[in-house]
Amino acid sequence: MTGNASLGLGSYPWTRLRRNRKQDWSRRMVRETTLTPDDLIWPVFVIEGDNARQPVASMPGVDRLSINLLVEEVGRAADLGIPAVALFPYTDPDLKTPDAQEAYNPENLVCRAVRALKAAHPHMGVICDVALDPYNSNGHDGLVQDGIILNDETNEALCLQAVAQAEAGCDINAPSDMMDGRIGEIRQALDTAGHQQVQILSYAAKYASAFYGPFRDAVGSGGALKGDKKTYQMDPANTDEALREVALDIAEGADMLMVKPGLPYLDIIRRIKETFGMPTFAYNVSGEYAMLKAAAANGWLDHDAALMETLISFKRAGADGIFTYAAREAARLLRG
Ligand code: PBG
Q: Which residues approach ligand 1 with their CB closer than 6 A?
């Protein structure tokens, strides 16, 4: 027995963990993780029109914005210190087809939004989702034949979509479709088209989740969706499989990784970050946002406190940043 142990040192009453917590300055000094506006990526929904703003009923505080309002709001987000935005289009149902070809129309809503944003705010990062669901008449992320989601044919369409977004000027392509092999194919297509500098943020571990409901309202894909996404998105019961997904995507050239949803998958973020040490992001998805807003609207939770606790939990789990619809609110709170 060491002398200290025989004296009982290292345990109560000599050791009192509350000493470090007794004042705000001391709590700040010993804080292990921090949250700054640099950690917040703001996902936004884009619609056609001029000065158009449509609230999303299931996401209080979130509006679909026409490009001119998007440019204004993104300027404000940049002023708050938010480094990047992620664009999601609400597509006119008339433009949705079984081959989802609007996805790679260089004049589609997303490509026009990217051009307008990069012209107005060249220092703001612009992230584009690569997946066919906003453009697919059956609401799936991939092409569908006889009820089967086609993998390799979908990859070809995703490559065209990624290149169209890159040509428009996006900084990061973020494939969220969960097809096998798409990261490598997209990397090759981008490089061939001269876009070696466009980053790929792979939604590597994306689960078939009930928490995407409000998002599907926001982009108008929910009503169209036939069946579920369980043959491509992951089973919520799996964690080893997430590591295999990530390993493949890194080998194929992913620059960054996403885990999605966020809160129910903090363990996945932790394992991925510890195993690979890659830039790893969490998506605090629409259903998580809606839950907090609903509870706060009923007076059941203190919104701001619960939001900040949620966001720090992602950092504590190992995330480098968080996609959150509350990015602006959080940035404002951080800036006091
Ligand atoms: C689809 C996509 C989804 C989200 C982002 N990209 C939904 C889905 O997979 O059905 C969900 C985001 C959210 O719920 O906030 N490619």
A: 129, 131, 133, 141, 176-177, 212, 215-216, 229, 285-286
The conformational region for residue 178 under phi > 0 = left, psi -120 to 50 = alpha, else beta, is left
Atom 7, ligand 1: residue with shortest CA distance? 212
Query: Is 206 labeled as catalytic in the residue annotation?
Result: yes
Q: Express each pLDDT in 196-240 by its tens digit.
A: 999 999 999 999 999 999 999 999 887 788 899 999 999 999 999
CA dist 209 and 176 (Å) reads: 13
Query: φ and ψ at 220, to 5 degrees?
Result: 70, 30
pTM comes to: 0.96
pLDDT digits (tens, 9 = 90+) for 284-334: 999 999 999 999 999 999 999 999 999 999 999 999 999 999 999 999 999
Based on the residue annotation, tell me whether 229 is a catalytic residue of this protein.
no
Which of 22, 96, 118, 206 is labelled catalytic? 206
